[in-house]
Design brief:
Pfam families: BcrAD_BadFG. Helices cover 44% and strands 22% of the residues. It is an alpha/beta fold. The protein has two domains: 2-121 and 300-313, Nucleotidyltransferase, domain 5; 162-296, Nucleotidyltransferase, domain 5 (2-Layer Sandwich).
Length: 316
């Protein structure tokens, strides 16, 4: 049977898995729903991981030598232990008719930001600033030390994330309605988004049962679109997001690297796909204090980062 490794990227919106052999050939890929167990619960998260692996390994006669799982919400040791226990269950689960012969270092559980860094840069040393529904800056130096900033979740932080931008857009609209802040084209855009006749009906929309952080995050493109046509309020929201993302990135850089060290930083996450030039604003703010940081586009995806770590674990 063909020796292979599995790489898995499990986030707050979806779970992706890839099966690769010793030569680096992709043999299969699979997708499933979210697997952040803090958000969806342990049972749903385990089932998503199982489903993604099952799809990636369907109709394959292989032996699994290593598996790297990069998952949202596993930053603490007890979280990693939960997932380590799941790997034991996966090996015994009859719904996965696989042969497992794991290398002694063949199971790795890490935060999704780690595999995003490795995939984005194609190496383990550098910085990654992720802005999706949430936001985090993460880095690793050549001594293996890691550091992070932000990423505390939507209640405590995640400044610069889609959630943060969406929430600031909603606040700007209601403040404008009161006369506490300048008028903005965001008012009309938000009313159109929700199908409202008047802004006073916004309360019923946002306080309905089941409305979550991801629903607020979906308003970020609305703010971005209004910013792209020059609305000052929307532009200020984007600029504040860029400032916060740059601050988190500088904080991680200074914890890990000498002041004059040349380091690459990869930007990852859907929030960077901005018509309002969020990425350019971020680069401008970052360059003022840390000109040694080179901001780059992702070279590979996060699943590729998981695969790279799994391959290294078995010496490939």
């Amino acid at each position: 049977m063909t020796p292979t490794v599995l790489g898995l990227d499990g986030g707050g919106s979806q779970t992706r898995c890839r099966l690769v052999n010793a030569q680096g050939t992709v043999l299969g890929q699979g997708e499933a729903p979210a697997s952040n167990y803090h958000a969806v619960g342990g049972e749903a998260a385990y089932h998503a991981i199982l489903s993604a692996i099952a799809a990636a390994t369907a109709n394959q006669t292989v032996v699994i030598r290593a598996i790297t799982l990069g998952l949202a919400g596993v930053g603490r040791p007890r979280d990693k232990q939960v997932v380590q226990d799941w790997v034991q269950l996966l090996q015994q689960d009859s719904r996965l008719p696989l042969t497992w012969n794991l290398h002694p270092q063949g199971v790795q559980v890490c935060p999704d930001c780690e595999i995003a860094l490795v995939g984005g840069l194609g190496q383990e040393v550098g910085l990654a600033t992720i802005a999706g529904t949430g936001a985090i800056a993460y880095g690793r130096n050549s001594q293996g030390r890691v550091a992070r900033a932000s990423g505390w979740g939507y209640l405590l932080g995640d400044e610069g994330s889609a959630y943060d931008i969406g929430r600031q857009g909603l606040r700007a609209v209601v403040r404008a309605a009161d006369g506490r802040s300048p008028q903005t084209q965001l008012t009309e855009a938000v009313c159109d988004y929700f199908g409202l006749d008047k802004i006073e009906d916004l309360v019923e929309s946002v306080y309905q049962p089941g409305w979550r952080a991801k629903d607020v995050a979906r308003l970020a493109p609305v703010v971005d679109r209004v910013a792209s046509v020059g609305d000052e309020v929307a532009l200020q929201i984007l600029d504040e997001a860029a400032v916060e993302l740059a601050l988190a990135s500088r904080t991680v850089y200074r914890q890990l690297f000498p002041d004059d060290a040349a380091v690459e930083l990869v930007t990852l996450g859907g929030t960077w796909q901005s018509q309002g030039k969020l990425r350019q604003r971020f680069q401008q703010h970052l360059a003022r204090d840390c000109p040694e940081i080179a901001v780059v586009e992702p070279r590979h995806d996060a699943v590729s980062g998981a695969i790279l770590l799994a391959r290294r674990a078995v010496g490939w």
